Amino acid sequence: MNKVHRKTLQRIIEKPERSDIPWKNIESLVLALGGEVSEGRGSRVRFYLNGVRAVFHRPHPRRLTVKGAVKSVRRFLQEAEVTL
Question: Would you place residue 35 in the very low, low, confident or very high pLDDT band (cuts 50, 70, 90)?
Answer without folding.
Answer: very high
